[in-house]
Amino acid sequence: MEIELKLALQPRYVARIRHHPLLHAVAPQQRTLLSIYFDTPKFDLMQRGIALRVRQAGDQWIQTLKAETQSVGALTSRPEWEMAVTDGRHPDFSALPQAALDLLAGIKLKRIAPVFTTEFRRTTWQIGEGAAQAEVALDTGKIFAAELSRDICEVEIELKSGPAEFLFDIATQLLQQAPLHIEPRSKAERGYILCGAFSPSPVKAIRPGIDRDQPAGEAWHAIVQAALVQLSANVPGFLEQAENIEYLHQLRIALRRLRAGAQLAKSLGQEIPAWEQPLRALTHALNPARDWDVFHQEILPGILPVLATSAENTAVSETALALLHNAAAQARQRAQALLLAPVFTQLTLDIGRSLLITPINEHMRTTGTWAEVILEKRWQKLRKCCRGFARLDPAERHFARIAAKKMRYCVEAFAPLYGKRVNRFLNALTALQDELGIENDRRIALQLLYKLPHKSAALGFEFGCLSGVLASEAAQHPRLSPALWHRLARSKLFWH
Known about the structure:
Layout: E1 2-8, H1 14-18, H2 21-24, E2 29-39, H3 44-47, E3 51-57, E4 60-66, E5 70-72, E6 75-78, E7 80-85, H4 98-103, E8 113-129, E9 132-145, E10 148-161, H5 165-175, E11 181-182, H6 187-194, H7 216-240, H8 245-264, H9 276-308, H10 318-340, H11 342-354, H12 367-385, H13 394-414, H14 421-451, H15 457-475, H16 483-490
Antiparallel strand pairs: 1-6, 1-10, 1-11, 2-3, 2-8, 3-4, 4-7, 5-6, 8-9, 9-10
Helix pairs in contact: 5-11, 7-8, 7-12, 8-9, 9-10, 9-14, 9-15, 12-13, 13-14, 14-15, 14-16
């Protein structure tokens, strides 16, 4: 079983790793590695989570088969089989053990052929501290698929012996000198993307693997881990395709799920993790980018037709639209910088490391009992916030929206315990949250327009018109429809 931490960095920072005090006293080894990755024309191995490669190291060819990866943030572990072979052009299936061959059952082995290659320079350092031993590898090179290529620049820290915490110790020390950032994707996954095997997409909430009879502390770990995996999985997509606003949306959902998980620690007699405070600060810092995404992609398209068909036939100029577009783009760039910063990388490492500690179950609760207590508490809080729903003022609607959101995160976290019984309640809860979110989006859109620099009287007038439409729409709906709340209130409480 391979256990490793993998972090990426920009090529201009490679020298900082090479000259890091932790590595400076260790004699490095260098070699050039050429790897050929194999699959069928329909990518059957990839679809099973299998990576099969033959790597040339000097005069030797090494064949490796890796099974599906299990990730916790930046930390990954996977079953792996490695053996020497005589030819790099074709895999040698006779050299694989039966456990590896079982993973290939049903696949026509004769159809397996090269699909992409990687070629990179690997510099390795052997680091030790007592029984803890690890290898630090710096890889710089490229992935090739037909006429396309993609850079490789990353650090892998592989555990050779001792506790996994040692990997986090090394990563933290390296991070003090070099701005390493999160890259949960393997070279194989990036190669498959490059050769068109699949198109990456935002990763939605991942349901944790929990059951009713396990200790509640273990379930808490699983809930936090699922949120951390979702967070890490959406980072590369946002860094590479920030214009796809769903990446940032899902990334922020993961952050809020992590915060909700952190708060649940109190119910288990534990301290709220130290990483909750920086997590809160990061969530707040990413808000402007998401606010501008919502404004630019959802609010603005609804405003422009209203202005164009008004009695004054007011049209928003290209100058004003460009300014709005630039404001959204700049907010996304600031958010990307936050995710590339060492502070975010360290936060992710801290959360991952905390999951290596065996959870304490002071109250000796099972997950089923714990879930019932938490869900009932959240439900009573939501009921209190939604009392007199149709007459809620803006401040009360805000608190109701927050309570609905927290309720939803808990429902989704504990959903594996209840199966399909969750669906009706969750659908009604989602509809209520969405309705409460509409007004919040309008309110934030007004704030964004107010903060924009009015470089001319004409621009000021146009932004004023946009604000007027938003205010008018809000004035037309001064009261909430009680139907959505009544639908939720009448839903069966599945945890009872």
